[in-house]
């Protein structure tokens, strides 16, 4: 099944296994291999180191034996990025999962990379705090995975993204040395902010073993309002009114099917804060939509609605899952481009946008009649051109394994790609870590 | 050079060059051989290409308000000054972005954005004079970054001219640019990656309302306990600033705001947000302060009083001239709940070295600024100030903090880097640096202890502002 490039080293699996046994690294079962399948390809091995030292040892062994390693948590987001270039072993941090240091008085938390985000949230919630990041499937997402895949949810509009909250990181370098940057205080400019490099790097620069974040206070109240719009024109006008109103929304989402004709699109506005704050903002919002029917949820129902928004991108089968980064004002024009493409290719789509950030997720449904590889590739390029015309970019976040090899996942023109290659070369010169997953085949 | 930047774009007369011989860190002085003042990214690129061909190291400079000697030329004969690149290129209120050249002054951005109900959040005390390029280089902070974050949280993209003259764009107008977050490492790299010529800034809506409280305490320890309690209570003020007894007296002498002269400490807490919920939040802060021993609490009645209060805070340093001929402002960080402990240690260190030390600081994020008073004519006292400053920063590290929260390492704190980073940590940073500047020709001899010329700080700087 696996495609091996001629220039890459041929992995010596027997020697790899022997070395691992000597280092007492726990190896997974065939079921684990099946569980960590990436783009239809099973890993040759799954490893569960139980300490940062073991991670370093594995990296050293892999480097000597010519084995490619894919750092992972629980395997929930491994479809992101390009196809791997070589047979690989998965290095799961699942057993390195302790809460290292929660300082409620200083609103910081340090956790090992294999800790589940949901467990981290439960732990800090006992002190009335939360890490204001919402990766999809937090119960199946590790702290390290959240950083590596830069997984952010709707509340990024008000709370920032992983990079804004990450204040310190400890990483095992590809050569097996442990290095750190940042620290455990919220303000710190000593040394380069290398933590940023590992955000969204898909495990191609090092293996994150520990991270420290800023926390915020859990809000006393959360509400979510769904406002149906008859068309994009109305949605656009309403978004503009929300933007200029005296509101501090936690999130502003736009949901619409494509084609949009004859179907509703919905704007979702969330508020959180004190009871009084939230009630006042709900009031303002109601006045803003001129008595239009809006569906409001509070308490548990609001939390459920937020979880649904948070997880939507990883739920449901799709031929393609795309992500466009645009200026917020580019959203309506981009939806028009989706309409055109939908009509031309006879495809239906679902759109979820973080409207205030200009981040748009598009799920392209698998058509009844089997789509050809050619049309999927053409569709991606057309939409990419549409995003580019609006000053944005488009990447493929997920593609069915049968069409993925034919697609340009990241887009041809990546700014500063030569510098990125040099970064990779500096930190992982032997290309041990997730080869092929990142931009430009890094 | 004159062919590239014009006759008026090169400074080489020794008298004129003396203007460029230091930044806000005035202890060490070293004038460049020439200063080049390009007017465009293209000119910067051409200048760097020429320097590369001639093998001449250089140092980028904004307006020279840095506080750690970041733009001090050390083994860099040529200075590239960005002061002529001072245009706001685009302001997009709907998408809340501004594109500016790096010589633009920080306060200009908020001034231009204000009519649209927006502002640029990072507000270092030098904001009337410091440049955006400098903010990007140092990852600058300021009093209002407690709630909203520092420079790195408000920059979407930069145009960087690499030391070989190549122009790259990192990040951009949109969020989530694909690829490594090179922008994130460039911000705070203290001008060692190349010359940033333009930046895309995020703008933030101006808060609908503001409420500023002033709480008086018998001691800094009481005030610090209140700070911890406010934070732990889940209130995030826009700013939380403390002044101790010595600073209160100096500020009162200078500005006659009406601070109680016998107070041990005052805490300025500013809350902002929507009008409606603000009163209640202010009430909670008031209660917490009272529970922690506040002897008096005042609320700024109007904008005028609020501005007067901030003037006292931001100009506290100017007021210190009344107390001693010279002072040295340190910059360290501790976890906020260790503030009482570090304050005790600072007092003890001051006593041991027979020095007067005042404190004015960003209490909410544990970013302390001890101010050590001295007379530079007294050699012995000057040396004690240097020793005491180092001891304080070591204590910050021991308590789980950092030797710099917002001023940077520059030349001043190079020797402290091994306190917090291992040789492997430092090697990794230098390898990343070499990706951008393989020949070590852009702002050499900074940040890293391995730099050829170790800077030995013998006397603290005379003046500083935060």
Quick structural gist:
With 442 residues, chain A is of the alpha+beta class. Chain A contains 14 helices and 19 strands.
Q: Describe it for me?
A:
The complex is a heterodimer of chains A (442) and B (466). Chain A contains 14 helices and 19 strands. With 442 residues, chain A is an alpha+beta fold. Chain A folds into three domains: 248 residues, 2-Layer Sandwich (Uridine Diphospho-n-acetylenolpyruvylglucosamine Reductase, domain 3); 91 residues, Alpha-Beta Plaits (2-Layer Sandwich), CATH 3.30.70.2190; 87 residues, Alpha-Beta Plaits. In chain B, helix 13 packs antiparallel against helix 14. The longest helix of chain B is centred in the last third of the chain and has 20 residues. Chain B is 33% helix and 20% strand. Chain B has 466 residues and is of the alpha+beta class. Chain B is globular, with a radius of gyration of 22 Å. Classes of the chains: A alpha+beta (442), B alpha+beta (466).
């Amino acid at each position: 099944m696996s495609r091996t490039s001629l220039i890459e080293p041929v992995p010596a699996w027997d020697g790899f296994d022997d070395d691992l046994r000597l280092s007492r690294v726990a190896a997974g079962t065939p079921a684990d291999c099946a569980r960590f399948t990436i783009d239809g390809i099973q890993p040759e091995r799954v490893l569960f180191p139980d300490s940062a030292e073991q991670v370093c040892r594995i990296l050293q062994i892999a480097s000597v034996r010519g084995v490619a390693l894919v750092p992972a948590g629980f395997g929930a987001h491994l479809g992101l990025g390009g196809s791997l270039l070589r047979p690989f072993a998965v290095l799961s941090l699942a057993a390195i999962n302790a809460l290292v240091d929660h300082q409620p008085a200083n609103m910081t938390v340090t956790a090992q990379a294999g800790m589940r985000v949901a467990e981290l949230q439960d732990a800090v919630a006992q002190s009335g705090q939360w890490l204001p990041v919402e990766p999809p499937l937090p119960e199946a997402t590790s702290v390290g995975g959240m950083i590596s895949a830069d997984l952010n949810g709707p509340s990024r509009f008000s709370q920032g993204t992983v990079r804004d909250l990450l204040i310190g990181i400890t990483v095992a370098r590809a050569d097996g040395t442990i290095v750190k940057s940042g620290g455990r205080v919220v303000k710190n400019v000593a040394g380069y902010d290398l933590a940023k490099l590992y955000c969204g790097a898909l495990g191609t620069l090092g293996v994150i073993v520990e991270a420290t974040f800023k926390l915020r206070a859990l809000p006393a109240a959360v509400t979510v309002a769904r406002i149906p719009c008859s068309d994009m024109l109305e949605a656009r006008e309403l978004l503009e009114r929300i933007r200029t109103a005296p509101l501090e929304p936690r999130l502003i989402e736009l949901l619409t099917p494509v084609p949009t004709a004859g179907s509703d699109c919905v704007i979702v506005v969330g508020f959180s804060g004190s009871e009084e704050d939230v009630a006042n903002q709900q009031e303002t919002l109601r006045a803003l939509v001129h008595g239009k029917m809006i569906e409001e949820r509070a308490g548990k129902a609001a939390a459920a609605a937020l979880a649904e928004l948070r997880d939507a991108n990883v739920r449901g089968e799709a031929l393609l899952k795309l992500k466009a980064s645009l200026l917020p004002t580019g959203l309506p024009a981009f939806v028009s481009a989706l309409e055109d493409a939908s009509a031309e290719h006879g495809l239906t789509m679902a759109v979820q946008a973080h409207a205030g950030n200009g981040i748009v997720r598009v799920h392209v449904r698998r058509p009844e009649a089997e789509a050809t590889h050619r049309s999927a590739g053409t569709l991606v390029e057309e939409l990419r051109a549409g995003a580019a015309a609006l000053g944005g970019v488009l990447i493929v976040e997920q593609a069915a394994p049968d069409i993925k090899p034919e697609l340009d996942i990241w887009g041809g023109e990546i700014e500063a790609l030569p510098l990125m290659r040099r970064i990779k070369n500096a930190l992982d010169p032997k290309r041990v870590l997730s080869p092929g997953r990142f931009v430009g085949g890094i | 050079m004159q062919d590239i930047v014009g006759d008026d774009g090169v400074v080489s007369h020794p008298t004129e060059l003396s203007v460029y011989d230091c930044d806000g860190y005035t202890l060490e002085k070293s004038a460049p051989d020439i200063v080049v003042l390009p007017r465009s990214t293209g000119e910067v690129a051409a200048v760097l290409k020429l320097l590369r061909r001639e093998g001449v190291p250089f140092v980028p400079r904004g307006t020279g308000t840095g506080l750690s000697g970041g733009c001090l030329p050390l083994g860099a004969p040529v200075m590239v000054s960005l002061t002529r690149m001072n245009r706001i290129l685009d302001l997009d209120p709907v998408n809340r972005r501004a594109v500016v050249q790096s010589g633009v002054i920080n306060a200009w951005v908020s001034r231009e954005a204000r009519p649209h109900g927006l502002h640029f959040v990072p507000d270092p005390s030098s904001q009337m004079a410091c440049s955006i390029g400098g903010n990007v280089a140092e990852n600058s902070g300021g009093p209002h970054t407690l709630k909203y974050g520092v420079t790195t949280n408000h920059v979407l993209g930069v145009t960087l001219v690499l030391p070989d003259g190549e122009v790259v764009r990192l990040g951009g107008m949109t969020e989530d640019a694909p690829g490594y977050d090179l922008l994130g490492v460039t911000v705070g790299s203290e001008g060692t990656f190349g010359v940033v010529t333009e930046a895309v800034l995020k703008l933030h809506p101006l808060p609908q309302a503001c409420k500023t409280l002033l709480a008086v305490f018998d001691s800094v320890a009481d005030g610090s306990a209140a700070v911890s309690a406010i934070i732990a209570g889940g209130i995030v003020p826009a700013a939380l600033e403390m002044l101790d007894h010595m600073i209160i007296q100096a500020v009162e002498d200078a500005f006659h705001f009406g601070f109680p002269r016998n107070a041990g400490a005052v805490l300025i807490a500013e809350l902002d947000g929507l009008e409606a919920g603000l009163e209640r939040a202010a009430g909670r802060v008031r209660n917490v302060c009272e529970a922690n021993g506040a002897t008096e609490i005042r609320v700024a009645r109007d904008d005028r009083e609020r501005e007067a209060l901030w003037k006292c805070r931001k100009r506290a340093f100017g007021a210190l001239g009344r107390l001693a001929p010279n002072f040295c402002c340190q910059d360290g960080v501790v976890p906020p709940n260790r503030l009482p402990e570090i304050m005790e240690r600072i007092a003890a260190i001051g006593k041991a070295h027979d020095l007067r030390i005042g404190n004015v600081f960003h209490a909410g994020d544990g970013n302390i600024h001890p101010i050590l008073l001295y007379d530079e004519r007294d050699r012995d006292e000057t040396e004690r100030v240097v020793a005491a400053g180092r001891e304080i920063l070591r204590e910050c590290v021991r308590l789980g903090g950092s030797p710099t929260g917002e001023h940077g390492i520059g030349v001043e704190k190079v020797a402290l880097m091994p306190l917090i980073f291992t040789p492997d940590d430092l090697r990794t940073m230098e390898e990343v640096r070499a990706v951008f500047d393989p020949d070590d020709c852009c702002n050499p001899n900074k940040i890293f202890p391995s730099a050829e010329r170790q800077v030995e700080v013998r006397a603290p700087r005379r003046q500083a502002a935060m």
